[in-house]
Amino acid sequence: MLIVMEHNATPEQVDAVEAAVEALGFRAEPIPGSLRTAIGVLGNQGYVDDTAIRELPGVREVIHVSKPYKLVSRDFHPEATVVEVRGIAIGEGYPPVIMAGPCSIESEAQMLASARLVKAAGAHILRGGAFKPRTGPHSFQGLGVEGLKYLRQAGDAVDMPVVTEVMRIEQLEPVCRYADILQIGARNMQNFDLLKEVGKLDHPVLLKRGMSATIEEFLAAAEYIVAEGNRRVILCERGIRTFERATRNTLDLSVVPLIQQFSHLPIIVDPSHATGKRPLVPVMAKAALVAGANGLMIEVHPDPDKALCDGAQSLNEEGFARLMQEMGGLIKYLGY
Amino acid sequence: MLIVMEHNATPEQVDAVEAAVEALGFRAEPIPGSLRTAIGVLGNQGYVDDTAIRELPGVREVIHVSKPYKLVSRDFHPEATVVEVRGIAIGEGYPPVIMAGPCSIESEAQMLASARLVKAAGAHILRGGAFKPRTGPHSFQGLGVEGLKYLRQAGDAVDMPVVTEVMRIEQLEPVCRYADILQIGARNMQNFDLLKEVGKLDHPVLLKRGMSATIEEFLAAAEYIVAEGNRRVILCERGIRTFERATRNTLDLSVVPLIQQFSHLPIIVDPSHATGKRPLVPVMAKAALVAGANGLMIEVHPDPDKALCDGAQSLNEEGFARLMQEMGGLIKYLGY
Amino acid sequence: MLIVMEHNATPEQVDAVEAAVEALGFRAEPIPGSLRTAIGVLGNQGYVDDTAIRELPGVREVIHVSKPYKLVSRDFHPEATVVEVRGIAIGEGYPPVIMAGPCSIESEAQMLASARLVKAAGAHILRGGAFKPRTGPHSFQGLGVEGLKYLRQAGDAVDMPVVTEVMRIEQLEPVCRYADILQIGARNMQNFDLLKEVGKLDHPVLLKRGMSATIEEFLAAAEYIVAEGNRRVILCERGIRTFERATRNTLDLSVVPLIQQFSHLPIIVDPSHATGKRPLVPVMAKAALVAGANGLMIEVHPDPDKALCDGAQSLNEEGFARLMQEMGGLIKYLGY
Amino acid sequence: MLIVMEHNATPEQVDAVEAAVEALGFRAEPIPGSLRTAIGVLGNQGYVDDTAIRELPGVREVIHVSKPYKLVSRDFHPEATVVEVRGIAIGEGYPPVIMAGPCSIESEAQMLASARLVKAAGAHILRGGAFKPRTGPHSFQGLGVEGLKYLRQAGDAVDMPVVTEVMRIEQLEPVCRYADILQIGARNMQNFDLLKEVGKLDHPVLLKRGMSATIEEFLAAAEYIVAEGNRRVILCERGIRTFERATRNTLDLSVVPLIQQFSHLPIIVDPSHATGKRPLVPVMAKAALVAGANGLMIEVHPDPDKALCDGAQSLNEEGFARLMQEMGGLIKYLGY
After folding, report:
1. Quick one: how far is CA B159 from the chain centroid?
2. For D193, which of C167, C211, C279 is closest by C-beta distance?
3. C65–A63: do the CB atoms touch at under 8 Å?
């Protein structure tokens, strides 16, 4: 931590700040400059709460050097984390893993049809939502536990692991029973209680980036899970909120190489939610692979125009099959 | 809903869209223009899911006229909602209500001292956090139920209603037992399960705006609560996330008159979290009153430099007393 | 400047960074920490270009302590700048100055009617646009020099100084001839050549904040003007671009006290462009006064529904007169 | 244009709106709904100024269907524009064009060395800045006309067309004399006078997206140039401003397929300014190609650590040569 003093701070003010730093158990190292004095804080083992210092007289700014995460940082744990789910490896050094399926589970038949078509096209993991977070209360909210059963049956029928979103702690028990991977949605990225609970479980966790979360907050959210003992965390970029409204969100692909530099956790990309537009999904899916994504999550529906949720961003059988074929060539080109 | 066709859409494409609209049970009204055709959708009783239409050939854009909320809209319910809490009225036509207290409940003594000083200065409702959402897992997370007891004791000692944040459904029972108002924090504004649960209760709910929530999403979140039967919802602006980093968030004061135009619910302002900087709190608190806020939520701590949370944005006894005096004059000037 | 090294940076890497700092003519002061080493840079007289350092091996982050402005900073020049225009003082310690008039100058008659009505209501400075920056080329672009003459005539008729926007260097000569204050619009806030040219003139400059400019960039733009010798700069907040679309822009009122803390220059607020909605203008104008604005710029039109530009955010005669009366009381209440 | 009335608008208010529409010379078509009335506006030949209507009593919202651009839209001009510069074709159906060179022209030797190294690696067009827009006035501002000469000499020496930024109208004459392509920087995207002037010239124009410009504004800016007669416009995505600060800007790659859908103009990507970080440049360059970019603009410097500007985002000889080789394979894979 570095404390920058005002240009005209008095020696007494500098002394008072040094005393406050030492009262916190750290060492203060003044760095006199030609324009102003700065004070380095030494001896801390991580992020320091600057409350006692930030508003002292003569203090202009407090600059944090430590980050609010450590267990998930590449800096302290250089070796990449590879998450394995029923024989499928997700992470550095492995071919990108494709998760696909409908936004919502709508019926046994729809789920089974979805599973068959994504399996046939070559996807690795089946997705489907039983509990749906919807902006307004008057929209379809998902089938709940009934849906989880359809998802599991469909996954078993085609021999694929399944991933589904969990929205509240009470849902953890049934979701763990039926699903292989627990998804935490963007709206819950800072639902810290939920993060802590999934941190105590064995199931891998797919953590989506909050729609206005910085990379630092995203990694700090993952730290909540890992701090409880569960190291099997997969990060997922799904677009951030910006002033641009031509797309549903703005897909931030540079987060992929950045996360891989800052953290050892795998990161995948969801081009369906990021763009919200079917014609953009294939092109952004391929761009994500080139950006280094360890996997993709893609919405596919046997009949998108009749989907109860997000049909406009879902691919149909033909569209997904074509994309899988194109991606197959690209993945090969990329050397996997 | 209005469907805008491409300039060069064929008559067959227009027909197909009309058929799709009618299949949804609505009426389609083509509006031929000199440059392109648009199709009005008539007969809907609210927001329409556009999935079946948005990606049909020849469709350029779908424009929604209905909003994802109705119960909270002023349009349909012109009369202002006034929320009463133990004799204190919050809403249109009543003097602004001041909620004050520490960010975190730290001890019995700290809470009691806080209560006494905010009461002495003239505040109406006591705040204090027992469950704290913190960006990283290595920060102080709150005293939990123990803290709730201190809050209740302190409120009773000075005869003030108390408000505190609830972060998960399991906390509802103790929080309802000890608190008069349930606060839903910004990070949980779209924790829809939590919203539905507080919607089933009798306690008034203070709903904070999510840090990247549009006004439409904010009101749709309130709709979740009201739709379950609980109409005692108080909205709270607490700053939004923008590119500017000189303040913690950007306080969006124009949301106050806008919400009052769109909705009948009361809206208050939290200048402490919005700015994150003590010297800005008083000036923005007063600006919020002039903008028409029905109340304020202000962080106050007996010894901010020793606060375990957000001390840098908390006022001390003297600062809060001075602000209350200034605001007293201003409120009188405003005609209450 | 502070250079933060990676956790596992080698001593050789630290040495290389120190050498690079010294090659720039500065002194390097290592600050060994328990987790990593930081290196303080001493001896610089302002902002340092970090190009030679930022990507050296082992460097994690470079943190700038100095700002890209100095002449406009309160830190180095504590005394407030008061800009005087024909006997009207704008700045700290003086009553807020009201600038009002139409968005566009449309005709001699419209400009004269506007001048009379804003004068009658008590405004101090007359505004009107002769050169209009419009998003698309097919919108009305302003009357040009002809408009400047109408503006000057109208100002003279009611004895008010006039302010108008200048968009390009070639317009400086006529604009200086006819206007008392030169306005630089938000889209030109980083048109550095234009800034330099107005920096060489004697006319006061009203500099509007760019729609996505940070406070630091805003002050750095003002620095361009002051660095050329013209110290008569008035800053103007006019809303920033955020994800919210219910208003034209998001009015950032906390910038007012912040700018007054960081800089000695006066700052005024334009609630008309910030909100884009007539019903919000009066309430935000008053909130801006309470936030400490040194003045306001308000769009007024004798017949807003027939305005060629921005009529929807313009007040009419009655609305402006009412607002001036309300603001008069408020300004008195604030102690001027 | 569609005018949405309040739920409780009176028949008289609806009549008044219809009259206002007809006074503008358009036809009004009421669309009565079950909840509210909407009024379609027919007969307009493009974007309509809604000033006279937006604030009439009973009006809730005005929705624009037409866009503020038409000449650049794919809707009206389906055929792709291919810009040819000295035998190099930029646009749909042609292999991506690589523009490379230093941020700033620093000396004759540096420019020549840059030209040789980018030519040797296979780049097509040479870039270099003679006039530099810098946030603060105390940074290096470029060599001016002297620099233009070095750029031209270097381009001629290696037989490459050259592109350079023009910041003001007075610079157009020398820049046109020395350069093949005129670049309009992000800060000048809405410098409408400059746009109009380059619209009158024959030189191709490289127009960079403003840092908070929507796609609609970006295309409307291009419309300014094309409306004056110059159809040789190349668009350039260079990152937008968001809340994320880990990168200099957020590269918005989905703008590439979107622009190609909305407009017939070519679009290229600048990964150097978008990310501001050398290690991210190659990966985002390749992702941009897969997203369909018609070209790339990449900063290259013979000795980045000694660059006077933006060295931290510049590639050196080896880095650029490696990237060109990788991109060569990828472009071939993509079928060019």
Report:
1. 26
2. C167
3. yes
Least confident of D53-67, D83-97, D137-151, D249-263: D53-67
Instruction: Please tell me if residue C29 touches chain A, with a CB cutoff of 8 Å.
Output: yes
CATH architecture assignment, domain D83-333: Alpha-Beta Barrel (3.20)
- Average model confidence (pLDDT) for chain B? 91
Q: Which chain C residue shows the shortest CA-CA distance from B212?
A: C243
Q: CA D281 to CA D311: how far, in whole Å?
A: 13
Is the pLDDT at A152 greater than 80? The verdict is yes
Q: Which of A241-250, B40-49, D299-308 has the lowest mean pLDDT?
A: B40-49
Cβ distance A65 to C38 less than 8 Å, yes or no, reads yes
Whether C275 sits inside 8 A of B288 (CB atoms) is: no
Whether the CB of A44 is below 8 Å from some CB of chain C: the reply is yes
Chain segment B204-231, per-residue pLDDT in tens: 999 999 999 999 999 999 999 999 999 9
Per-residue pLDDT at B308 exceeds 80? no
Per-residue pLDDT tens digits for C141-188: 789 999 999 999 999 999 999 999 999 888 999 999 999 999 999 999
**Structure pTM?**
0.90
Candidates C2, C42, C241; nearest CB to A2? C2
Shortest CA distance from B27: residue in chain D: D33
Chain C interface test: which of A1, A2, A74 (most C C-beta within 10 Å)? A2
Strands C233-237 and C83-85, bridge-based pairing: unpaired
Q: What are residue B305's phi and psi, to 5 degrees? A: -70, -15
| CATH H-level superfamily of B2-63 | Phospho-2-dehydro-3-deoxyheptonate aldolase; domain 1 (3.30.70.1140)
3-state secondary structure (DSSP) of residue B189: coil
Q: Cβ neighbours of residue A5 under 8 Å, at least 6 residues apart?
A: A13, A14, A17, A36, A37, A38, A39, A58, A59, A60
| Contact between C169 and D167 using a beta-carbon 8 Å cutoff | no
- Domain boundaries of chain C, sorted by first residue: 2-63, 83-333
Residue D89: predicted pLDDT: 98
Q: How many helices (H) and strands (E) does chain D have?
A: 11, 14
ipTM attached to this prediction: 0.90
What part of A 274-313 touches B (C-beta under 8 Å)?
Answer: 278, 304-312
Query: Closest Cα of chain B to D217: distance in Å?
Result: 18
Whole-angstrom distance, CA of residue B87 vs CA of residue A248: 45
Chain A residue at shortest CA distance from D250 = A252
